[in-house]
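thread: overnight batch results

M.L. [08:02]
morning all. the overnight job finished for the chain we discussed friday. pasting input first so we're all looking at the same thing
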Amino acid sequence: MNRYFVTFQYDGTAYHGWQVQPNGHSVQAELQSALSLLLRQPVELVGAGRTDAGVHASCMVAHFDTENALDGVQTAYRLNRILPRDIAVLSVEKVDSEMHARFSAIRRTYYYYVHTRKDPFIDHYSCLLHYNLDFDLMNEAGRILTTYHDFAAFCKSHTDVKTTFCEVAEARWDQLDDHRYRFTISANRFLRNMVRAVVGTLVDVGRGRISLQEFRRIIESGQRTRAGESMPAHALFLHDIKYPR
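M.L. [08:03]
and the structure it wrote out:
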């Protein structure tokens, strides 16, 4: 049996997230259908994680097993001929049978984009904020995030997870131009809805609605109801996934 990693991108606007759902259009279903058609056999993909409805990925990874020996370049080319315009395969690579798209990943990075004035050319992939923000203060709060391990306060309520512990390596805001900003957060794993909840709470810090001390207390409380609102999904991108060499 051969194992292959598929690296791909997608615009999540039309999908109910990555994972197959009984009553929703998913990226996983589209890619599995294309692979099954191409290989003429049922294919089950295992993704590196899940993205919520409306969230995008500039780099997503999934693996599948097949008895066929595939030419990665040709397989990627043929998949792109089948897939819809909002999903693009970047590569198909044979990997060791012990490699796992989800469990072998050692770091994931997300981007969240905001802009502070109306801009029709980025509005589809960035969140417009109508108020002034102190990004220096938000970066101080981001550094505080990296000193904690339990992020239950930013996890979607009633989610069945074994642990709410994550190792956040970085959390920072960068200014891209006079009205565009990008939040970068990297960790070994993320909880469901975690990034959008973190961004919403950092925005509350930037607006002066909560202090840095209150931000710490929110994290330590472990209560989702004390953190900020989840930000809109359309401005969130899964940017990168790292694996051992």
